[in-house]
Amino acid sequence: MDEKIVEEIRMHKETIATDSNTPLHLIREKELEISGKVLAAKRQADEIVSDARKKAAEVVASAEAEGGAGAADSEAAITARAQEDASRLVAEAKDEAEGLSSQINTHRGDAVRLVLDAVTTI
């Protein structure tokens, strides 16, 4: 594309050197002016697209980092909850075992008497 513009500029210079007021010359000048504007617009569009791609890459990287941190936070919270639940269950089991143990101690004498009575009466 740049070679085409360079060639158009050369033709423009040649046209100016030969005749500068003909309609063909005026049309050619406008064509060159418009070509320059189109080239500038394309360059600006390329810069905008490039900037947008950079920003999109930054957003993706940021989202991935936040997602990883969020997953780690969730894992830590779930692990902490599981540990709390496990501690609570162990404490409840100990309390229940102590209650059963005291009931066994309370009723052990009665059980021994029943067994002795059953053995001795036979």
Fraction of residues in helix:
over 70%
Q: What is the total domain count?
A: 1
> Structural class from helices and strands?
mainly alpha
Provide the succession of SSEs: HH
Provide a count of the helices. Answer: 2
Radius of gyration computed on alpha carbons: 46 Å
Distance from N terminus to C terminus (CA atoms, Å) equals: 118 Å
Please give the largest β-sheet.
none
Mean pLDDT: 81
What is the percentage of strand-forming residues?
Answer: under 5%
Structural shape = rod-shaped
Low-confidence stretches: none
**Tally of DSSP β-strands:** 0
Q: Could you explain how this protein is built, in words?
A:
The protein has 122 residues and is mostly helical. The chain has one domain. The chain is built from two helices and no strands. The chain has helices at residues 2-18, 23-120. It is rod-shaped.
Features:
single chain; 122 residues; mainly alpha; 2 helices
How would you concisely characterize the structure shown here?
The chain has 122 residues and is mostly helical. It has one domain (2-88). Helix content is 94%, strand content 0%.
